[in-house]
Design goal:
By secondary structure, the protein is mainly alpha-helical. The protein is built from seven helices and no strands.
Amino acid sequence: MNKECPVTQDLLPLYEEDLLQPGTKQFVEEHLKSCQECRHIAEQSQIPLPVEVEHGGGSKKMMRKITLKLTTIQIFFVAIAFILAMGTTVMNNNSGFIFILTYALLGAVTYLFYRSILIAVLLAGIPNFVWNCLLYMTDWFGEFYGGNFWEAFSIALTSVIVHLIITFIGIVIGFCILKIREEN
């Protein structure tokens, strides 16, 4: 390998696309005649690369697949949020606090996936609020927690606010993770 080889190898993509000036093109051709290694690299670059996109599949089909995947992930996030909401209110003992801390994880993961504070808050808050309203404002579980509607509503709202504060902590963690990844 002489000192012309690296220059020739750098010029090969332009040579193959016929984008070189006549003098440079002649230099590459003469070098390829005399250097077997560079000639082998030039021959290898002529091999067509495999196409990763399926032929015959339109953009509508591709968008449908992407939409289905995203919808599945969104349903998964909402289901996790409902499970967490039920877990934090059903478990009134010490393990209920661990379920509350999982909202930090939910906030972080949701923020990392969607990169939106609003979506992270909605995914954590709405299922929790709906569950708490069902729990504290109806007689589904055998007792009313409040003396009237407003008392039960305030209990449900307080619970949601506590969970959203923990979710915001998770969002901040997710934001910090993104910033660290961007710096690296």
